């Protein structure tokens, strides 16, 4: 055997390396286990900013009211992620590591939405030479996590769309219809 074949499961790319390269360079294997918890995967979700109620109050009262509304909104998002993670761990027998907790937090505050990141850990992947089987496990797990978060966002009344862009799109289409 003169060459070793490396396959990138996500992009379906295959690389051939001379075996002598393994002796000349340092090789680090991160494919099976990235950490004790398993291989960490991350998904980002953009959650639109809430519409806070504006009331006529003194500045001190307005600050307290705004802070309470922000706390309620953040608690609602945390509850949504927690419920989605609980649903996944209870009902789905995929490749998610059962002993590890999901992790989430704010990644970025953008122009139209707050960007949250959700980390989950994969259980050890089965030993197989079929990239198709591994892709099915990885993408199936990813789709299940996205579906669960989306379902819980609807249950909690949290908007995963960017409403400013939706409003721009509807006003543009309305002006096009008026011209027609």
Characterize the structure shown.
The protein is α+β, with helices and mostly antiparallel strands and 180 residues long. It contains four helices and five strands; from the N terminus they run ββαβαββαα. The strands form two sheets. The protein has a three-stranded antiparallel sheet with strand order 3-5-4, with helices on one face. A hairpin with a 4-residue loop joins strand 1 (3-8) and strand 2 (13-18). Helix 2 (59-91) crosses helix 3.
Tell me the total number of β-strands: 5
Class by SSE composition: alpha+beta
Main sheet attributes: strand count, strand direction, barrel closure: 3 strands, antiparallel
User: Biggest sheet: strands side by side, in what order?
Assistant: 3-5-4
* N-to-C series of helices and strands: EEHEHEEHH
Low-confidence stretches: none
Report the helical percentage: 40-55%
Beta content comes to: 15-25%
Gyration radius over CA: 23 Å
Please work out how many helical segments DSSP would assign. Answer: 4
| N-end to C-end Cα span | 69 Å
Task: Describe the structure concisely.
The chain has helices at 19-24, 59-91, 131-156, 163-179; strands at 3-8, 13-18, 39-48, 103-109, 113-122. The strands form 2 sheets. It has a 3-stranded antiparallel β-sheet with strand order 3-5-4, with helices on one face. It has a two-stranded antiparallel sheet with strand order 1-2.
């Amino acid at each position: 055997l003169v060459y070793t074949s490396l396959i990138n499961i996500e992009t379906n790319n295959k690389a051939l390396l001379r075996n002598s390269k393994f002796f000349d360079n340092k090789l680090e294997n991160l494919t099976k286990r990235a950490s004790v918890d398993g291989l960490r995967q991350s998904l980002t979700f953009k959650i639109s900013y809430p519409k806070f109620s504006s009331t006529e109050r003194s500045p001190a009262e307005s600050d307290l009211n705004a802070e309470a509304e922000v706390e309620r909104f953040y608690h609602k998002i945390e509850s949504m992620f927690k419920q989605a993670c609980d649903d996944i761990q209870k009902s789905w027998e995929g490749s998610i590591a059962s002993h590890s907790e999901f992790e989430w937090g704010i990644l970025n505050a953008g122009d139209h939405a707050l960007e949250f990141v959700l980390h989950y850990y994969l259980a050890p992947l089965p030993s197989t030479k079929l990239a198709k089987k591994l892709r099915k496990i990885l993408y199936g797990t990813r789709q299940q996590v996205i579906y669960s978060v989306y379902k819980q966002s609807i249950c909690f009344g949290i908007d995963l769309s960017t409403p400013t862009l939706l409003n721009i799109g509807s006003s543009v289409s309305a002006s096009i219809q008026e011209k027609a």
